[in-house]
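does this look right to u?? manganese (II) ion version
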Amino acid sequence: MLVVMSVAATEQEIEAVRQHIEADGLTAHESRGEQRVVIGVVGDVGLRKEQVMNHLAGLPGVESVTPVSKPFKLTSREFHPADTVIRVGGATIGGGTLTVMAGPCAIESRDQLLRTADAVAAAGATILRGGAFKPRTSPYSFQGLGMDGIRFLVEAGERTGLPVITEVMEPSQVEPVAAFADILQIGARNMQNFPLLMAAGRVQRPVMLKRGIAATVEEWLMAAEYIVSSGNPQVILCERGIRTFEKYTRNTLDLTAVPLLHKLTHLPVIVDPSHATGKRWLVRPMAVAAVAGGADGIMVEVHPKPDDALSDGEQSLTFEQFAEMAPVLRTVHSQVEGLYAAEV
Ligand code: PEP
Ligand code: MN
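got this back:
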């Protein structure tokens, strides 16, 4: 439920409401808007719901208490009507900006990463990606360089000035990786790894949560809710295609998810046309379509020699292809700026 404080509510009144919520065995999450404070109440109220609501409604400074109709609470637009804007290094994600995340699927060597980082930075990427812990379908495929890869990523980030994002696959990786990476990525295969989501909720780094291969939008938002309710409000969602009966593409890109998510949640939405299509030549049209449809940005894989890549070469762009695509995305973004704001 949402406790909407009146515009004139004092800090003491807000604190008293918080204490009442906690005394009831529930958790209070504050959202400070321009005008007023809204307190999201989460926890299992069961049959006590009406009693708890009436009690809170009678406290000084409380304007109204309303139930949240959706199962996701803290990630819902009802709780937080304004867009969440995430600032990391010199980059801003959400709030009308265009985020371009680019880099290799896997960090294969220092040289491969630094060359790619230089190329994507020069072409206008805003965030550098690179996998060090790789979730591979086959146990015999290249599994990533682990913490050595993270060291190269930090070097590449410092050299280019770009914030860096990399994947974590299990809870024990969260703290050590968060000590170096600017953004943590939770991959499609781990979207419902609840211990991992909760561990990511306990660090002060933004987390990009990719959609599970068979996840509904609601399941995805519930997964994001795990991170936010564990204490980390800085979550970015990434649509990367879902599994369907179609075989020509690696996955099926669900672009409807972009405006849908913008309606349901305040979190930024990124689209990954590389994993969504699995084919290099399909990346650019789908990246353009994503930006045209209101995505807050895209994530793409780029490799110095895609045909020699140790992972996902077929869907990786060459440096030239990335450099040709980036200005097109900026043009499309400027054309649709402000177009969707009224619809959410
Ligand atoms: C990746 O970004 O390299 C990756 C493994 O993506 P996904 O989790 O979407 O498959
Ligand atoms: Mn990949």
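The first strand starts at residue 2 and ends at 5. idk if thats expected tbh
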